[in-house]
Amino acid sequence: SQTIHQWPATLVQPVGSPLSLECTVEGTSNPNLYWYRQAAGRGLQLLFYSVGIGQISSEVPQNLSASRPQDRQFILSSKKLLLSDSGFYLCAWSVEDQQFFGPGTRLTVL
Amino acid sequence: DAKTTQPTSMDCAEGRAANLPCNHSTISGNEYVYWYRQIHSQGPQYIIHGLKNNETNEMASLIITEDRKSSTLILPHATLRDTAVYYCIAGSGNTPLVFGKGTRLSVIA
Fold it and tell me: What are the pLDDT digits (tens) for B11-48?
């Protein structure tokens, strides 16, 4: 069966520090991969999605970037975090007509 | 993706069926109806999806009207653990899903 891993589960970072969140998927090949963010008390916002290795589509201009170095690995990065980057970051994968979410990383920028 | 409309909140007595409505009047022919729920501090959990026919799994039933302009998610015997925000989404399968504000379901003992 397919599983999706995200780490870390929680993260506290100072403003201006770099960020790297990793997501890996097991049990499937060539999935579409997604990064969403949910600010406190808000809905889910799509940040990036990828249909293959090295292919990244950005939905919202910001100081975040994404990369897909391997088929089942998706990385979210930032060179300098802002206070507004705080939130719940969710990785998701889809194949055909189904999409599933990971457990998420809760990021607090102080 | 077609826009969906859901009530902001609903209450349901524990043990009773919870019927969550969703309108998707602009849904296109190749778009599915998806339902997810999000329990506080967790990632969205897939519940069920369908295209035209009604669907049932171990979690819920999905009833889609014949014209596909609306649907209802049915939790047959709601428990306190079903308290969550429920999202109805119209989307075309292997593309990013657009989440709205959903329905906050409160199951009451």
Answer: 999 999 999 999 999 998 889 999 999 998 899 999 99
Cα dihedral: A73, A19, A99, B60 (round 10)? 130
Token pair 């669907």 in the structure block, residue: B55
Instruction: Quote the minimal CA–CA distance from B87 to chain A in Å.
Output: 10
Q: Give the number of beta-carbon pairs within 8 Å between A and B.
A: 46
Give yes or no for a contact between A25 and A3, defined as CB atoms under 8 angstroms apart.
yes
How do residues A12-48 score in pLDDT, each as one tens digit?
999 999 999 999 999 888 899 999 999 888 889 999 9
